[in-house]
Amino acid sequence: MNSCGLRCLFILLSFPYLLQADLSSDYYSKTCPDFDQTLVQVVTDKQIAAPTTAAGTLRLFFHDCMVDGCDASILVASTSGKTSERDADINHSLPGDAFDLITRIKTALELKCPNVVSCSDILVGATRSLVKMVGGPRINVKYGRKDSLDSDMNRVEGKLARPNMTMDHIISIFGSAGLTVQEMVALVGSHTIGFSHCKEFASRIFNSNAEHSADFCPEGMNSKYAAELRKLCSNYTKDAEMSAFNDVFTPGKFDNMYYKNLQHGYGLLESDQAIAFDNRTRPFVDLYAANETAFFDAFAKAMEKFSEQRVKTELNGDVRRRCDQYNDYRG
């Protein structure tokens, strides 16, 4: 290790508080007093114009924060020399409206207070506002994050849950992110809004034996629901954009209907339906299905905790001028 590295290590070991982000709800009160008002206005305009923005941004938030914390690494575009997180296969279906929203907010804020507000704080703040806008709970978020200095596609695999994973595996992934089983079940409730592409659940609803595929019903799934999904996704191999709402009854409203659906066999993804049967997760599914207030409270607290873990500071991050590029990018 060179002398600079030794000095840095000595400083960090002597003053460990330097590694801790100084987050606060009024972090931008002096440096960018119009931060919250500007963010909310842009978010409102975008959600009105494109109602699926809320679900898309919430998904973007999770895909960012599950990989090394909420550091806006998901927003960085790949270059000829390096492939970033957003081009990992599991991130290919992240919606353009969510990326567009963050770009719009960043542009508006750069005009008011240049080089002040981080992209990671923008993503967290936008997610908070959108959840509330579509009927969800108030999330008390804090600000002061810095943006990552690296985004690597190879760091994604194994940190994001896939629909066909076992419950053991999914619980392990959330546990590695510092989340309990109850917090995991509460956060998965975000599937109360949004949609999933047919290819993500096709293997669940289509029987490999074509002779019996018409009346095939996956374990735990309502038979009529399965039949309707097969009709909807019948051409999914030719049209990759074909999709179904995660919550078939109130797809645009953030509520506890997702959990009620699971109890009656209306879980779209295999991983979703599994939490209604696993002994470790079912008690929380039943609780949130019966009590929306309990779900909202648990979701808000889990989001607050999740958004504050593994935060980047001045020592290992900065404030990007463009969310999709590092500040030293030369193109």
Automatic annotation (TrEMBL):
Please identify the protein, giving its name as recorded.
Peroxidase
- Active site per database record: 63 (proton acceptor)
Positions of the site: Transition state stabilizer?
59
- Similarity comment: family membership: Belongs to the peroxidase family. Ascorbate peroxidase subfamily. Belongs to the peroxidase family. Classical plant (class III) peroxidase subfamily.
Question: Which metal ions or organic cofactors does this protein require, according to UniProt?
Answer: Ca(2+); heme b
> From which source organism is this entry?
Brassica campestris (Field mustard)
Plant heme peroxidase family profile domain ranges (all copies)? 22-327
List the keywords (alphabetical).
Calcium, Disulfide bond, Heme, Hydrogen peroxide, Iron, Metal-binding, Oxidoreductase, Peroxidase, Secreted, Signal
Give the taxonomic lineage as stored in the record: Eukaryota, Viridiplantae, Streptophyta, Embryophyta, Tracheophyta
Show the Pfam families listed in the entry. Answer: peroxidase
Location (main, coarse): secreted
Q: Where does Ca(2+) 1 bind?
A: 64, 67, 69, 71, 73, 85
